[in-house]
UniProtKB/TrEMBL annotation:
<keyword id="KW-0560">Oxidoreductase</keyword>
<dbReference type="InterPro" id="IPR008927">
    <property type="entry name" value="6-PGluconate_DH-like_C_sf"/>
</dbReference>
<dbReference type="GO" id="GO:0070403">
    <property type="term" value="F:NAD+ binding"/>
</dbReference>
<dbReference type="GO" id="GO:0016616">
    <property type="term" value="F:oxidoreductase activity, acting on the CH-OH group of donors, NAD or NADP as acceptor"/>
</dbReference>
<comment type="pathway">
    <text>Lipid metabolism; butanoate metabolism.</text>
</comment>
<dbReference type="InterPro" id="IPR036291">
    <property type="entry name" value="NAD(P)-bd_dom_sf"/>
</dbReference>
<dbReference type="Pfam" id="PF00725">
    <property type="entry name" value="3HCDH"/>
</dbReference>
<dbReference type="InterPro" id="IPR006108">
    <property type="entry name" value="3HC_DH_C"/>
</dbReference>
<dbReference type="GO" id="GO:0006631">
    <property type="term" value="P:fatty acid metabolic process"/>
</dbReference>
<feature type="domain" description="3-hydroxyacyl-CoA dehydrogenase NAD binding">
    <location>
        <begin position="16"/>
        <end position="191"/>
    </location>
</feature>
<dbReference type="InterPro" id="IPR006176">
    <property type="entry name" value="3-OHacyl-CoA_DH_NAD-bd"/>
</dbReference>
<protein>
    <submittedName>
        <fullName>L-carnitine dehydrogenase</fullName>
    </submittedName>
</protein>
<dbReference type="InterPro" id="IPR013328">
    <property type="entry name" value="6PGD_dom2"/>
</dbReference>
<dbReference type="Pfam" id="PF02737">
    <property type="entry name" value="3HCDH_N"/>
</dbReference>
<feature type="domain" description="3-hydroxyacyl-CoA dehydrogenase C-terminal">
    <location>
        <begin position="195"/>
        <end position="263"/>
    </location>
</feature>
<comment type="similarity">
    <text>Belongs to the 3-hydroxyacyl-CoA dehydrogenase family.</text>
</comment>
Length: 318
């Protein structure tokens, strides 16, 4: 049963965060909240969850230390509970990061809702489901929101926040304020959109990349290089809209659209998903193995983290 508190805590008064799910995303959230000085209670049903979680957090800690830890931040503030209700009962805020399975999410959110004090906001890390789809079995759906992060959550600042049909505007505003208080960059969406904003844009690029590999038009390595040494260098400074605004010279976006608008009819993108045949799957996997060139996943994570930190510092965002 949920227990009532005397009002919802202010975002700045949150002390304990419960993270439900301790995979790559959930574990990244654990690392982030620990680094921001919170006490974190984690729960995951897998038998080896605690071992994997502590490995992930330890691997992330050097990067977080380099960025700067909050006062009092410590790995000692992590507790792994084996009972979901016990984990949720301690929460001032809950971040759920279970696998992308709608029925699993519905059932798990209902269990979290039943065990969490009634004033506490519950956030889901879903990558594509609408909260309206997931909150249907909750007794208190008004306090459930999507808080969609990006991998790794302990480094990438963006969180997309949006409520469902039964979510109260106050809960959405509270979650947005809380994430900002922790240091996140927040997009508060006015309406639910499948895949939210950033994932829809990523998916368009991903689908075209798979089509190009499948058609023999480009290799995995060429596709990655086309972004890392091309437009990807501009995007940390200006997003695609301002990038194209500058492409119009002194005339800005108006000139760009007037001049290049007809190219929108050119066959530059397919957008429909490529058929993921065994051959395409193998080509992409083999290309990634070649590009990794013997570097382990841990090696690549460390390389990525160093790169993101350097970019954040160069832009004055760290």
């Amino acid at each position: 049963m949920t227990s009532a508190r005397v009002g919802r805590p202010a975002p700045a008064d949150v002390r304990t965060v419960t993270c439900v799910g301790a995979g790559v995303i959930g574990g990244g959230w654990v690392a982030y909240f620990l680094a921001r000085g919170y006490r974190v209670v984690a729960w995951d049903p897998a038998e080896d969850a605690e071992q994997r979680l502590r490995h992930l957090v330890s691997a992330a800690w050097p990067a977080l230390t380099e960025l700067g830890l909050a006062d009092g931040a410590s790995l000692e503030h992590l507790t792994v509970e084996h009972d979901l209700a016990t984990a949720c009962a301690q929460a001032d805020f809950v971040q759920e990061s279970a696998p992308e399975d709608l029925e699993l999410k519905r059932a798990l959110l209902a269990r979290i809702d039943a065990a969490t004090p009634v004033e506490v906001v519950i956030s889901s890390s879903t990558s594509g489901y609408a909260m309206s789809e997931m909150q249907t079995a909750c007794a208190h759906p008004e306090r459930t929101v999507v808080g969609h992060p990006f991998n790794p959550p302990y480094l990438i600042p963006l969180v997309e926040v949006v409520g469902g049909a039964a979510t109260s505007p106050e809960a959405v505003a509270w979650a947005s304020d809380f994430f900002r208080h922790t240091g996140k960059s927040v997009i508060t969406m006015e309406r639910e959109v499948p895949g939210f904003i950033a994932n829809r844009l990523q998916e368009a690029l991903w689908r075209e990349a798979l089509h190009m590999v499948a058609a023999g038009e480009a290799t995995v390595e060429q596709i990655d290089l086309s972004i890392t040494d091309g437009p990807g260098l501009r995007w940390p400074v200006h997003g695609p809209m301002l990038t194209f605004h500058l492409a119009g010279g002194q005339g800005g976006m108006a000139h760009m659209l007037d001049h290049f608008g007809p190219s929108l009819q050119s066959p530059w993108t397919r957008l429909v998903a490529a058929e993921l045949t065994p051959a395409l799957r193998d080509a992409v996997v083999d290309g990634c193995d070649r590009e990794a060139d013997g570097r382990s996943i841990d090696d690549l994570v460390a390389e990525r983290d160093r790169g993101v930190i350097a970019i954040l510092r160069a832009l004055g965002r760290a």
